[in-house]
Q: What sequence folds into this?
């Protein structure tokens, strides 16, 4: 398993995975929208996308966005997306992607990495906890649709 940063040459394959990830979160499939979105992220360099390679096949990805903590006065990272193809789950791709994200945080002097997952996604929760992520019990998160 090799973890590398995605580039424009990976655009189509990452867009396929990104679209699958979105549908897992109950969104309508939209490959063309996913392609445009990932193209923008790569071109504008406003996120970091890592891919898990098994041989020549891209089997998973994670996408992180820089954020800032006023309280800690540090840059931090939002690990917004993590997805591995179902046929490749349990082979270490997600774990390796999380390790790469942790190295990014360390290398950039970040204060922390924030992530969220669906309450029913217990497999992911177990992996996150194994990797040292702690479920927040002191804060509530609120969303407002715009």
A:
């Amino acid at each position: 398993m090799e973890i590398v940063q995605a580039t424009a040459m990976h655009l189509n394959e990452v867009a396929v995975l990104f679209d699958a990830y979105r549908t897992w979160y109950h969104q309508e499939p939209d490959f063309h929208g996913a392609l445009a979105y990932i193209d923008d992220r790569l071109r504008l360099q406003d996120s970091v996308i890592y891919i898990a390679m098994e041989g020549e096949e891209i089997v998973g990805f994670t996408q992180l966005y820089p954020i800032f903590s006023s309280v800690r006065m540090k840059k931090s990272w939002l690990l917004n997306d993590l997805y591995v193809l179902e046929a490749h789950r349990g082979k270490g791709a997600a774990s390796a992607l999380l390790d790469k994200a942790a190295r990014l945080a360390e290398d950039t002097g970040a204060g922390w990495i924030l992530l969220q997952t669906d309450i029913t996604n217990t497999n992911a929760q177990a992996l996150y906890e194994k990797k040292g992520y702690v479920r927040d019990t002191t804060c509530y998160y609120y969303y407002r649709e715009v």
